[in-house]
Amino acid sequence: MGTSEELRRITMTPAARRALAAAGRLFYDRGIHAVGVDLIAAEAGVTKKTLYDRFGSKEQIVVEYLADRDERWRAFLAERLDAAPPAPRARIRAVFDASRAWMSDNGSKGCSMVNAHAEISDPAHPAHPAHAVITGQKRWMLDLFTRLARDVEGLGPDAADRLGRTLMLLHEGALVAHGLKVFPDPVAHARDEAEALLVEATGR
Predict the structure, then answer these.
(1) How far is the C-alpha of 121 from the C-alpha of 33, rounded, in Å?
(2) Is the dihedral of CA 118, 119, 123, 129 positive or negative?
(3) pLDDT number for residue 19
(4) CA distance 14 to 37
(5) Confidence class for position 122, pLDDT limits 50, 70, 90
(6) Burial status of residue 162 (CB atoms within 10 A of its CB: 0-12, 13-18, 19 or more)
(7) By C-alpha distance, which of 181, 42, 29, 49 is closest to 106?
(8) How many C-beta atoms surround the C-beta of residue 78 within 10 A?
(9) How far is Cα 171 from Cα 165, in angstroms, rounded to an integer?
(10) Which strand (E) or helix (H) includes residue 20?
(11) Mean pLDDT, the chain, whole residue set
(12) Mind listing the pLDDT tens digit for each residue in 148-190?
């Protein structure tokens, strides 16, 4: 996961999987605070007792929701990167193209991690266990962009690290803009800006 080893996960039973699928749809569409355990149980066709017996708390359902989404995204991205040409520029482009495809199918409201962070980072939830999932995922994305930048020929280590951070900012900003729907196709725009940065950084 790229998150702390202290992050607790549960073993999924069929009922828990149904509950997680329902919670995932509801949390993403309506927001975490707006969705109660009663609604999740009703949507999943399980009892409220079953939810608490399996997950223990609503907080743990949120952890599982975000961790599941993160795992599916990483698997999706891995397939796209495996299919991409080995050149660093092509692989950087593949990350943005993967995000564009993912957001088209799974992200009408933007990044689930960013959306969740906005809800659980207020003073009323200072130690929410899902923080580890969110920050772990974003650190993983930064590490990925940094590794890809370090493979670009002609860039020194410092320049590559700066480029990795800039690529991360372009990517994350595009995900937010996608959810806000301020202008069309922001992920493609970010991808094109990333390619322009690479040309500028390498002179070719």
Answers:
(1) 12
(2) negative
(3) 96
(4) 18
(5) low
(6) middle
(7) 29
(8) 11
(9) 10
(10) helix 14-30
(11) 92
(12) 999 998 899 999 999 999 999 999 999 999 999 999 999 999 9
Long-range contacts of 123-131 (CB under 8 A, 24+ apart): 128/59, 128/62, 129/7, 129/8, 129/59, 129/60, 129/62, 129/63, 130/59, 130/62, 130/63, 130/66
What is the per-residue pLDDT for 124?
Answer: 56
Residue 44 CB contacts under 8 Å (≥ 6 apart), including other chains: 15, 18, 19, 21, 22, 23, 51
Q: What's the rounded Cα separation, in Å, for the pair 61 and 184?
A: 33
Six token digits for residue 178: 């996608």
The secondary structure of residue 32, as a DSSP letter, is T
Give the pair of three-digit tokens for residue 130. Answer: 């899902």
Model confidence at 128, in pLDDT bands (50, 70, 90)? confident
